[in-house]
Amino acid sequence: MGKLSGIRVVDLTQFLPGPMMTVMMADHGAEVIKVEPEAGDPARVQAPFDSYGGNEHSVWFANLNRGKSSVVLDLKSEDGKAALRDLIGGADVFVEGFRPGVMKRLGFDYEAVRAINPAIVYCSISAFGQEGALAHHPAHDMAVQALAGFLSVNDGPDGTPVVPGAPSADLAAGLTALSGVLMALVGRERTGEGAYIDCAMFDSLLPWCAHTAGSAIAGGESPKSASQRSLGGAGFYQVYKTADGRHVVLGGREIKFAKNLLTALGREDLLPLAEAPAGEQGELIAFLRETFAAKTRGEWVEWFEDRDVAFSPVLDFREAFDEPHVAERGLIVEAEGGGRHIAPPIRFAGEVWKPAPVPAKGGHPG
């Protein structure tokens, strides 16, 4: 039995933040009922596809919806509304990801749902929250990152922002919503009372800049990547190109790492620069760029093997998934009948996790 066995979740979310949250609950035993429109969650049709238990599913959809059951309901019809009310009556958690105001128009805002089930934990996930000037502004992940300041430091050497590699606002919201719901469930054990959680992607992402945007948080200027220790202004937290056109990184600014590397390279004289303020390490960065450009990525991996330096090669996803570490940690798991899943990041000692089947639209897992 999983840690959340006995918890029933009614899940009206689609795409990424909500399904990521509820699959983490399903992975640990919660009964998650995915309520879909006739067209289904749009992620169902997102390529690429693979065979999961003999059925073709989107890899995206399978990895975020395994272990759930699916119910197709038309929430604009009386039959659909009645069916959803029945589900709510026996649920512990209700999660929705529509734009603010939609659930009220459908007759399933928090007040209406609480009237059916006073102990329910209700979570709304949106881009900017249920109230405020931006509440109704349409936005997916990158637009939220842009408005929260994060995209300004997701830039190249010329200062031009680039499309981020990770949907951080989506994922921050999924994790924040999960944490809020679990807190509310713990609190309900003491008080018997449910709760309402207004989870915004913007609000969830904003605390992630505490270590980089201190000057702006304190009311001053915004940090610039080229002069910020964790964003490109430091030699030992930097990306370097190798002789074969690939890349490696130095990912630790502790002075012991700088000393170990610079001593091995015969340039202890540059050690004071490794301790200099970010933005004043130009000579050090130039030396390291020239140095790394002299060997291939593979040669550097071999060279660093017995050295205590925070160094890593930049791998693509195929290379990353094929790393022995992934196999040793059991991070890619093949389901019974086929189909590969990324294992949940939360796993408990003594428990063996196996991916549950992926639900067909309107059906139980299978």
UniProtKB/TrEMBL annotation:
It comes from the Bacteria. InterPro entries: CoA-transferase_III, CoA-Trfase_fam_III, CoA-Trfase_III_dom3_sf, CoA-Trfase_III_dom_1_sf. The keyword Transferase applies. Keywords: Transferase. It holds the Pfam family CoA_transf_3. GO terms for molecular function: transferase activity. This is CoA-transferase. It comes from Erythrobacter litoralis.
